[in-house]
Amino acid sequence: MPVFTRLRQLPGTTGDDSPRPVADDPAQAPSTQADPAQTDPTQATRSSLKARIAHWRTWRSRHPTAARALSWTVTALAAVLVLGALLLPNHLFALRPNRFTRIPAEAIIGAVVLLALPRRPRLAAAALYGTGLAALTLLNLLDMGFTEYLGRGFNAALDWDLLPDAQSYVADLTSPAVATATAVGAAVLVLLLVSVMVWATVRLGDLLVRHRSRATRGALVAGTVWITCTALNLQFLGMPIASDRAAGALKTHARRTLDSLRDEATFAKEARTDTFGATPAEQLLPDLRGKDVIFTFIESYGRSAVEDPVMAPGVGRTLDTSTKELAEAGFRAKSGWLTSATYGGSSWLGHSTTMSGLWIDNQRRYRTVTAGDHLTLTKAFQKTGAWDTIGIMPGVQKGWPEAEWYGLDKVYDAFDLGYKGPKFSWSTMPDQYALEAFQRRVHGRKHDKPLMSLVILTSSHQPWAPLPKTVGWDELGDGSVFRSIQQAGKKPADIITDTTKSRQEYGRSIEYSLTSLTQWLKRYGTDDTVLVFLGDHQPIARVSGNNASRDVPVSIVAKDPKILDKITHWNWSEGLKPTRTAPVWKMNAFRDRFLTAFGSTPSRGTGR
């Protein structure tokens, strides 16, 4: 660069080489020091905050009435948030106005504590109190969701592991992007809930201190009223006026968590002891040798499907028709009830309870038992060496290490059955196709040994939209025939939020699954086929009802009369539809009863 050019760019010169004007007044001269607010972000923030505070004070002084109204409105909102959190029930059906007309003891105690503390401890206590209210609200909301879907409250010691499954379920219903957005949105809402609750408690704490004398008298009066209402059991709108709902909820969750932690060690010891654990192979299931035995779970096939006035007519007709058609083909059936270890979801708990003979009603128990070598009913068949054992798992879309625990020589998952058609919401393929693929790839082929098959059917999984329809068995092909049926089906969003429609579509899904299974048996069953099929759990509470039992139907179907003669002493109902008075067993009782009925010799053993 030429010297002349560089001189033109020196300070004090202008772009046209003329001298830069110099101000006569020093105050008007350009400053050579940077503005601190422009160089220090913290200082800039403070300056902006001061400006806003000054603006607010100016507005408040000019409009005192409006400012006072706004302040009291915000304070009232804070009070509503705190009282609402303290009185919020943990069941959807309990969300009624009379639940929020009570006096919470926790609010009175909180006010007394805040009034007694100096400023800084008071702020810390108020923030901690607000965080606790946010946690309590979150637990109540989780209780609502778990009760609605699983028929039980949330367990802080066990259920966090189920949240990823919930995200996967949303992804299956919508898309991975929507599921991720939902998870992020939920996390943001939790942070927002904490922030709002802390703000509300801090604001109310400041209000109490500003009016200390009146607040003290008010807390004394409220405490006296609360004690009086408790002693006299006074009620308003059908609810006790005095409430300790928040403390009771926290106590319940704490007890639930502690009980779960204690249960782990107890269950691990129980799982190591097995009535048939040391039974020699030749003494297991001798009365079923030579039979092709199929254990089939139908998703959400619960007692409500058979007895509820909305679902029962259609399901009942299907069961009656199927019983008649199977009888014409030479099959007989007996049916009873099992009380499932789960409700509304977590199907694997029902599967493992039935097959292990242990009560597996939570994820920790499931992990404990599947990590050991407790004998499952399916593994008993494998242990004999007299059967090839296979699993048909259209719902499995990733690694499934539990196959070894179940004693399955080969597992056919969602990718092994050759399906090229569309998914039906969560279900990867229609039951009819899964059964036909089972026939083509396994059951219909020659094999050196009889088969023991574990088949999990998924078409009746919520949200029951869209639903597949039965097509000609010879038309199934690779499943592409279902594409037009899926496209013409109902949308999940139109069903899942409507209780009546959910119940109707649930009933239709059970009819479809039962029809597919019994038609398959009629078409491909032989003199040596023994079919055991049952539900894994009841459908969610919105469909089965808030006070529904956990019972599921179970049936055994065979041509050989000796098979059903072996279970005559069970007193099960004739046909595929169990009567109301048919025996009800806990689901974990089935393994031992089945093994005993078909000739197995008990021999207690211990495992790891």
From TrEMBL:
Give me the stretches of Polar residues compositional bias: 29-47
Q: Which UniProt keywords apply?
A: Membrane, Transmembrane, Transmembrane helix
Question: Which parts of the chain span the membrane according to its record?
Answer: 69-88, 100-117, 124-142, 177-200, 220-242
Q: Enumerate the Gene3D superfamilies for this protein.
A: Alkaline Phosphatase, subunit A
Q: Where is this region: Disordered?
A: 1-47
Its recorded name reads CDP-alcohol phosphatidyltransferase
Taxonomic source organism: Streptomyces bullii
